[in-house]
Amino acid sequence: PIASCFFPSNLTGQWINTANVNARVLINATHIHEIAKVNNRGWLRETYYVCQQTSRSQYLVKAVTKGECFSYYICFDFKDRHHNILRYRKSKSFMSNLYKLFPNRDPFYEVCSWTSFGNDANWKYQAFVLDPPAPIECPFTGMWTFKQVGQPNSLIQTRIRGGITPRPRDHGWYITCDPQYVVSQWTICGDQTKSMFA
Q1: pLDDT given for residue 121 in this prediction
Q2: SS3 content of the chain, % helix, strand, coil (to 5)
Q3: For site-directed labelling of 102, which of 44, 76, 163, 172 has its Cα 20 to 30 A away?
């Protein structure tokens, strides 16, 4: 498909899709190119999202997956970029052939309708993380301590890639879920405001 609109220049770059950590996302002025590992065998699924129409923060794209016969309309709703994070919602997919059969139907109106994003009371946003992340100035300096208080079952669990840490990791420098390790301390010193030591 031919692009007929543009993404903002601050969306361009290489990203990691947190909804699928095996996926790499490349965004340029008119296309989003997602390359994802499908399974352990290393098969790749390549999907191109081509910008078709835009209004405010919503972008109607035509999605074409390499090796598939059909294209789909999908709507991306992007939040403003925050340093290394780009939050977005993605609508359900609609077969693009449907709109050729019924030319009076407006794909932007239907695909980017709020009902196309699911009917959760609180919309959930996925995130792209810049790859590699760029360091930014920390808004504070000094030594800080974070301690959780409350019922043991309501404390935030530390996470590692692949999910919540299943058990303490040798009580070394690894993050653990052991109740005695619910205190974190980090330090930002002097002119090292782009580095944080935990």
Answers
A1: 58
A2: 10, 40, 50
A3: 76
Mean pLDDT across the stretch 109-116? 92
How does DSSP classify residue 82? B
Reported confidence tier of residue 37, pLDDT bands at 50, 70, 90: confident
Cis omega (within 30 of 0) for bond into 152:
no
CA dist list (Å): 33 to 51, 165, 181, 184, 197: 11, 32, 41, 38, 35
Which of 32, 23, 85 shows the shortest CA–CA distance to 54? 32
Average pLDDT rounded to a whole number, residues 28-45? 85
Q: How many helices and strands in the chain, by DSSP H and E?
A: 2, 13
CA distance readout (Å), 195 to 49, 81, 108, 135: 36, 21, 44, 8
Q: CB within 8 A of 127, min separation 6: which ones? A: 18, 19, 85, 86, 87, 88
**Do residues 134 and 84 lie in contact, with contact meaning Cβ atoms separated by under 8 Å?**
yes
The kind and range of the H/E element at 127 are: strand 126-130
Q: 32 with 49: CB under 8 angstroms?
A: yes
